[in-house]
Amino acid sequence: MFKLVCGAGNEDAEYVKKLVFTYASAGCKLFDISARKEILEAAKEGAKLAGAEDVSYCVSIGIRGDKHIKKAKIDTSKCSKCANCFRNCPNDAIYNGQNPRPEGIEWKEGDSPVIIAKKCLGCGTCLRKCPTGAMGMEEKDINFREVLPYMAHHGANFFELHIMGNDKEDLARKWQVINECNPKYASICIDREFFGNKEVLGRIREMIKSRKPYSTIVQADGVPMSGIEDDYKTTLQAVAMAEVIQKAELPVHVMLSGGTNSKTARLAKMCGIKYWGIAVGSWARKIVKPFLKQDDFWKNKEAQNCAIEAAKKLIEKCK
Fold first, then answer.
1. What is the pLDDT of residue 259?
2. CA neighbours closer than 13 Å in the CB half-sphere of residue 81
3. For residues 299 and 297, what is the distance between their CA atoms, to the nearest angstrom?
């Protein structure tokens, strides 16, 4: 199973439509999307344009403290206007006064960075590149009690909860609503950035104890939103995280994520990982980005075909 991760924080409906169209045309059947009504509709439109049938949608939300519900913000009093954030944002979520960001845009002296919130995925690249500490993050949560039942009623049949945060009450509330929606699969996305293996496995065991065996997916998130390169080192932690889950012999399906790329399947097989699927986000988006950014994408068959061919090659390598 190959899952395209559009991004839990990706609220750019037109971009999501292009992504889903491209990967659905390439044979992908599962798409991870933001918990926004307009994003679900955009994804469904993309699949329809691709002529894809039997497509499933996985709606992703996070608990408080998890980076997947955070957006970048700028403290203008600290900003030196160096443009590091502008040049390094992998999602084109920072611009210098021109929205949307046109291809070939250049930073001019005196320009100030501005966040395009709908494009920001909360990856934190801008924080790491900022020399003055001007970049920060703020949480952008949703009315999950309203949104999740809507998504379930309108075609979403996978629900995923990112649980890397310390607010266990928020975790319990959101997990309860997910279970009440009765999705085909409920997914738990977890990594080891802040917790050790004991805490990780303890959380999973607690969450699955009232669920039927193998009705839960554990997405072993190596290093979330880190798959910007296509090498073994980048995907190493995804495979290592999957091994932790596999050794615990839990009645769950294991999906690799977080730094996944075209090398993930091969490394996982070398390590004896019996994975149910591979979810690819950053790398999957990167390889089709030059084509999807074309202003005439919907009329440009060459750009569409190039994007679809790149997607097909990645999907094939993830089997």
1. 95
2. 9
3. 5
Per residue in 30-52, pLDDT (tens digit) is: 999 999 999 999 999 999 999 99
Q: Does domain 70-139 have CATH number 3.30.70.20?
A: yes
Select the more confidently predicted residue: 265 or 144: 265
- Any residues with CB less than 8 A from the CB of 60 and at least 6 apart, and which? 8, 32, 33, 34, 35, 68, 160, 161, 162, 189
Domain regions of the chain by residue span: 2-64+142-294, 70-139
The answer to whether the peptide bond before residue 213 is cis (omega within 30 degrees of 0) is no
Which residues fall within 8 angstroms of residue 59, CB to CB, at 6 or more apart? 33, 34, 35, 40, 148, 151, 156, 158, 159, 160
Residue 101 backbone phi and psi in degrees, to 5: -70, 115
The span from the CA of 282 to the CA of 90, in Å, is 8
Q: What is the pLDDT of residues 119-135, one digit of tens each?
A: 999 999 999 999 999 99
The CATH code belonging to domain 2-64+142-294 is 3.20.20.70
Could you tell me how far CA 223 lies from the centroid of its own chain? 12
Question: Same CATH fold, 70-139 and 2-64+142-294?
Answer: no
Task: Give Cβ neighbours of residue 151 (< 8 Å, ≥ 6 apart).
Answer: 35, 37, 40, 57, 59, 159, 181
Q: What is the pLDDT of residues 85-123, one digit of tens each?
A: 988 999 989 988 655 555 556 777 778 899 999 999 999
